[in-house]
């Protein structure tokens, strides 16, 4: 296992009409859609890994496991946290969790899971796919 600096982040979002299951095509209700929750989890992992990257490096998502456990209404604030759980070479696996935020702070668990990212050289990666 590679020693890398600890990596974690907490990012807050507010559910808008554009984030609902109706808007993202994943259902018929005006609540936070699972694809948007997934995007927010990936954003939290990007925020966590960014300070650990060398110049010219970036990361790409390669695997996601996510359980969407509770609904979030339009206007609800959601905090998404990402914490580095495992590192091996270029691979970084993050534990992610999303909670609705109320007046007393983080509340109901909205979702949890794991996001795996791989560190790559951005220019080499793009050159490879540009053919």
From TrEMBL:
Database matches in SUPFAM superfamilies: Thioesterase/thiol ester dehydrase-isomerase (SSF54637)
Record-linked InterPro entries: FlK, FlK-like_dom, HotDog_dom_sf
Gene3D superfamilies tied to this protein: Hotdog Thioesterase
Database matches in Pfam families: FlK
Domain Fluoroacetyl-CoA-specific thioesterase-like: 15-122
Protein name from the UniProt record: Thioesterase
Organism: Nocardioides humilatus
Organism lineage: Bacteria, Bacillati, Actinomycetota, Actinomycetes, Propionibacteriales
């Amino acid at each position: 296992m590679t020693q890398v600096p600890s990596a974690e982040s907490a990012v807050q979002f507010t559910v808008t009409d554009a984030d609902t299951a109706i808007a993202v095509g994943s259902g018929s209700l005006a609540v936070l859609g699972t694809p948007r929750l997934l995007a927010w989890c990936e954003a939290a992992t990007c925020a966590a890994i960014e300070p650990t990257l060398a110049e010219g490096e970036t990361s790409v998502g390669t695997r996601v496991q996510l359980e969407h456990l509770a609904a979030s209404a339009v206007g609800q604030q959601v905090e998404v946290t990402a914490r580095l759980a495992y590192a091996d070479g270029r691979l970084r696996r993050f534990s992610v969790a999303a909670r609705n935020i109320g007046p007393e702070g983080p509340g109901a668990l909205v979702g949890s899971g794991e996001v795996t990212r791989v560190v790559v050289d951005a220019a080499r990666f793009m050159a490879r796919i540009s053919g």
